[in-house]
Amino acid sequence: MTGLRNTVLTVVLGLVLGALVHAVAILAMPRLGTSSAYQRIAASSPIGATVLFDAEDGAVRPRFADPTVEMSACAFDLARGPFRVGIVTRDFVQSLSIHGEFGGVIYALSDRSATRGGINLTLMTRRQLEAAQAREEEPPPNELRVPLDRPRGLVVVRAHAPFDSQREEARALVSSLSCQPQ
Fold first, then answer.
1. Which of 157, 146, 139, 154 has its CA nearest to residue 77?
2. Which helix (H) or strand (E) holds 91?
3. Which of 88, 105, 106 is nearest to 146 (CA)?
4. 4-41 pLDDT, tens digit each
5. How many angstroms separate the CA atoms of 133 and 44, rounded?
6. How deeply is 24 buried, as exposed, middle or buried, from its count of CB atoms within 10 A (0-12, 13-18, 19+)?
7. Where are the domains of the chain?
8. How far is CA 64 from the centre of its chain?
9. Mean pLDDT throughout 70-94?
10. What pLDDT is recorded for position 62?
11. pTM for this prediction
12. Which of 4, 124, 164, 176 could form a disulfide with 128 if both were Cys (CB 3.0 to 4.6 A apart)?
């Protein structure tokens, strides 16, 4: 009976250890990967430059992206100071999302958040936000300050163009993404 008990205990402990190793490996992959989206974009263009994801260019465009969605992105680094981000909105379903350097969405908005025909953000670290508030600086009325815990990442803009006739306008819209140090 003890032999059976030891065998069962060994199998259970093996399964628990295997599950633990599997979970740690899955959670560590984004940090251990050699080429995140941020690293690829930051290596191919200057920080703050808008990169258009071309539907035919599989090197930059996400592999399983919806072909009716036009996308652009820019890399930011808050170690150099706050970043101003702006996009004009039109009659498309649009979204703007902020992603961390190693993946994960930090903040997201849709075209419904637009004021005066655009979305305007200032990305800052919490320390930069506190310094701006200590100086009693008020943001413009149509601008939103977004404090981030991660100093580097990507701003990604998407516009849905369900018809081929809308593709050029959607591409021009996402190309108008403005990302610049303040």
1. 154
2. none
3. 106
4. 888 888 888 888 888 888 877 777 766 665 567 778 78
5. 35
6. exposed
7. 1-32, 37-181
8. 16
9. 87
10. 66
11. 0.75
12. 124
